[in-house]
Amino acid sequence: MERPGGVPAGPEVWAYVLDGHERLRIALAELTEGGERGPSRLPDWTRAHVLSHLEGIGRALTRQARYALKGELVEVYDGGRPARDAGIEAGAVRSAAELTAAVTATLAEAEAVWGSVGDADWSRPVRYRDGDLLGALHCWWRELEVHTADADLATCSAAWPRELCLHLFEFLAPRAPAGLTLVESDGPVRHTFGTGGGPVVRGRLTDLTAWLAGRRPHQRLEGRLPELGPWP
């Protein structure tokens, strides 16, 4: 039985993040005025909401890195979840051009800060989940890729790299009911949560991952789909 491998190290994750940045820039180049008001793949959120959230979480996680490199700790969001939610709503009223400029600036800021993280820095503590810099970068990788797909522009979950899918299997394990087995129809992965004996779901790796992340798969999955728990 094959299970997903270990989580990539910092420099490897950063390389995947940079690739995701470039795909998001390409997608933003196709966003025309008025398109930001179109629906995203998230209920009740427009593309503008998704892009506003990407800007906010990108800046928040980059701030975690900036302070950690100085040996200091700072909250992810000043004001917590209420401030985060208010920021998304306030930012979502902007035009396509304004949102594109804001997200592009966030990516540039992230590259300047995260690009300066050295091999000895990944274990520096951060406030994000009381973890370390590597965990914060993993979070940005997840948020970047999942919400780029949510924006429903020129990219989607079918473009998620294999390494991200395997990482999401591990991160999203708390959502899965005990015994669930996910079987890749176009590859070798067979991943069981717990000891097995539960439902078996088959499909392409990206579609299995999209479903586990609470997103609609692009192609139909085979098997009984159990109810999932909340995002961890």
TrEMBL record:
InterPro entries: DinB/YfiT-like (IPR034660), Maleyloyr_isom (IPR017517), MDMPI_C-term_domain (IPR010872), MDMPI_metal-binding (IPR024344), SCP2_sterol-bd_dom_sf (IPR036527). Residues 160-228 form the MDMPI C-terminal domain. GO terms for molecular function: isomerase activity. Gene3D superfamilies: dinb family like domain. Keywords: Isomerase. Residues 19-151 form the Mycothiol-dependent maleylpyruvate isomerase metal-binding domain. It holds the Pfam family MDMPI_C. This is Maleylpyruvate isomerase family mycothiol-dependent enzyme.
